[in-house]
């Protein structure tokens, strides 16, 4: 079931039923645990298939996971200002998990992520997998 939720989110709007797990909210409604999706690099379509994901943690900050530019398997987790990321990446969408999240578990995963090494794989372990893990929807 978790894998199906991840696939639905990864391909959002491409597979009927994605609305069963997530729904879109406006920036004025953003709250901890909301996933912010940005088109990858210079792809102009807001609804392009490939996205970069960050998760809003509160107090104007997001957390996200990226691969290193040197193509090594090591990635890095970082927290930064939501407004700075919006300015750098442009268009975005905000998605919220239906039924909400368990805030204590979410905060514990954020702390864990900030203090551990993570390995990046474009196919199996990337920013969207990381975001879904923070919400308790996928292993990472």
Automatic annotation (TrEMBL):
This is LRAT domain-containing protein. It comes from Dryobates pubescens. Pfam families: LRAT. Residues 31-134 form the LRAT domain.
């Amino acid at each position: 079931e978790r894998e199906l939720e991840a696939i639905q989110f990864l391909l959002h709007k491409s597979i009927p039923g994605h609305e069963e797990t997530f729904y879109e909210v406006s920036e004025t409604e953003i709250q901890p645990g909301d996933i912010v999706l940005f088109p990858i690099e210079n792809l102009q379509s807001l609804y392009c298939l490939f996205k970069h994901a960050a998760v809003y943690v509160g107090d104007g900050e997001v957390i996200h996971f990226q691969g290193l530019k040197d193509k090594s398997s090591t990635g890095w987790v970082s927290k930064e200002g939501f407004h700075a990321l919006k300015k750098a990446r442009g268009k975005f969408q905000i998605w919220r998990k239906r039924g909400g999240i368990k805030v204590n578990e979410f905060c514990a995963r954020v702390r864990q992520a900030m203090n551990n090494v993570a390995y990046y794989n474009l196919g199996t372990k990337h920013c969207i997998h990381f975001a879904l893990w923070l919400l308790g929807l996928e292993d990472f």
